[in-house]
Design a protein that fits this description.
- By secondary structure, this protein is an alpha/beta fold.
- 35% of the residues lie in helices and 12% in strands.
- The chain is built from 14 helices and 13 strands.
- Helix 2 crosses helix 9, helix 4 packs across helix 12 and helix 10 packs parallel to helix 12.
């Protein structure tokens, strides 16, 4: 499916571009060399695990005394909000069912939700929401007060009403309804091609607090701009642990001579500046792999079961293992990224979406249980994200690209069992609809991210480093924690 037209245009403000550009320009020359060396390695088919530029030139915050981890679970393709968090009161359910047609989830199959009595953001009188039948793990965490639902969140460059959207009188995210661009805006506040994301920019601030900065931003699912900072670079692992440079480890063709030669080639001191930088990066890659492998091997095994048939659960199990090894790694602040694809369901939504939700719910529940078993549930927060929501209308067998969507925030510190944000009107042609039931977000990613960042320890003076547009939005109004 090709990207949709650019309804919003490239309307980022000059101030937005300048803030990010200034951050990039502040990188020191040795950081440029470090990144150049890492990129040259990647070009030779080496893993991103070798990109180990963890500097301390950021406006670093004081080293924290406690431990905290933030986990981003990204659902690639654009999750269908209409069949995830479903209107349940009879009036709104009837409207939903009339619009969804063959995509409708039967009301008697939905999982009911009861908000806490002291909810700070109660739903409007009479409004109710329920969960898809597959989200039993999320339902149990919601009931226990360990999970909440953020309603109608999405990418915004500034607070936007329907009239402003139609008149294009405020900045809009670039290339709305485009997968690549909206993934990038969600993860970085910039369009496709961005070189840093807000997870990585948070990591920048805490590099000095971790004894090994390499383990600040850890990606278990590949490469994502969310995890790249202006100084920190994401360290990639897989479901089995650290990614090894096999030849240097002595396993290539069983030849120790070849391994010795490769170690000499890649790790021996060099007089040339670029060669020396390349050598330093390679040496740190090997040392980081050895440190993580040893830490995982010497940390007691997890007792919480994770489904081996669920690739997302396997990723989150590795996150739990690394968190368990936090002391051995000298980590005080860590940002993690996991992902699951397959949500671009223009077709086969009824057949395929339930299985995806089953995997998301099972992985989140197992991961939360693991943090409880490790005694760190109050110190770990997980949140979901996606390209965008989808249309409430059916195209016959699926739904099309949308904008706002509903998301989950999970953790022991979360003030859960409630809904955050503003409940959107159900229907087509409402003040919350930009066409075909595409929700106009009323909560920006920046608002969500800033509350997560505040919990993580980012100070108000550093918030604009992480979220260039945050000055346009009200902060601290969601009440996640």
């Amino acid at each position: 499916m090709s990207n949709q037209s650019n309804f919003g245009g490239d309307s980022r403000s000059s101030g937005h571009r300048v803030n990010v550009a200034q951050g990039i320009n502040n990188l020191q020359r040795r950081e440029f060399l470090r990144r150049s060396a890492a990129v040259s390695i990647a070009g030779a088919a080496a893993p991103w695990a070798m990109n180990l530029a963890a500097l301390s030139e950021a406006a670093a915050q004081s080293a924290p005394a406690d431990y905290k981890a933030l986990v981003c679970l990204f659902m690639y393709g654009g999750n269908d909000y209409g069949n995830t968090v479903v209107p349940f009161d009879q009036t709104n359910y009837n409207t939903y069912a009339g619009i969804r047609a063959a995509l409708t989830t039967p009301r008697d199959q939905l999982l009911t939700l009861t908000a806490r009595a002291d909810a700070t953001n109660a739903l409007p009188s009479g409004r109710q929401f329920a969960l898809a039948p597959q989200l039993t793990g999320i339902q149990s965490l919601f009931a226990a007060g360990k999970a909440g639902i953020l309603l109608n969140a999405g990418t915004l460059a500034a607070p936007t009403t329907l009239a402003q959207y139609n008149a294009k009188s405020v900045p809009l995210p670039p290339k709305l309804f485009s997968h690549n661009d909206q993934q990038s805006v969600w993860q970085s506040s910039l369009a496709e091609g961005a070189t840093s994301g807000w997870g990585g920019r948070m990591g920048d601030l805490f590099l000095n607090g971790n004894s090994t900065g390499t383990f600040t931003c850890i990606n278990v699912s590949g490469n994502a701009v969310y995890m790249s900072g202006l100084e920190s670079v994401q360290y990639q692992v897989n479901s089995a642990g650290a990614v090894k440079l096999n030849a240097a480890a002595g396993s290539i063709y069983g030849s120790s001579a070849v391994s010795t030669a490769l170690r000499e080639l890649t790790q021996a001191p060099r007089s040339h500046l670029m060669e020396s930088e390349h050598t330093r990066v390679m040496k740190r890659a090997v040392e980081a792999e050895a440190q993580l492998t040893t830490a995982l091997a010497t940390t007691p095994a997890l007792t919480t079961p994770f489904s081996t048939d669920n690739s997302l659960a396997v990723q989150m199990q590795m996150v739990a293992k690394i968190i368990a090894a936090r002391t051995a790694l000298g980590a005080k602040r860590q940002v993690f990224f996991v992902s699951i694809g397959g949500f671009d369901l223009h077709d086969f939504l009824v057949a395929q979406h339930p299985g995806l939700l089953t995997n998301v719910s099972g992985a989140i529940k197992s991961f939360y249980d693991a943090t409880e078993a490790l005694g760190v549930s109050n110190q770990v927060t997980t949140f979901t994200a996606s390209d965008f929501g989808r249309t409430l209308t059916s195209n016959g067998d699926g739904s099309d690209h949308g904008w706002g969507s509903h998301h989950f925030v999970v953790g022991g510190a979360v003030k859960g069992q409630q809904f955050w944000g503003k409940a959107p009107a159900t229907g087509v042609g409402t003040s919350d609809d930009v066409g075909q039931g595409r929700l106009l977000p009323t909560t920006s990613v920046d608002m969500l991210g800033s509350e997560l960042a505040t919990w993580f320890g980012v100070t108000p003076t550093n918030m604009s480093r992480v979220f260039p547009n945050i000055g346009r939005f009200n902060q601290g109004t969601l009440g996640l924690f």
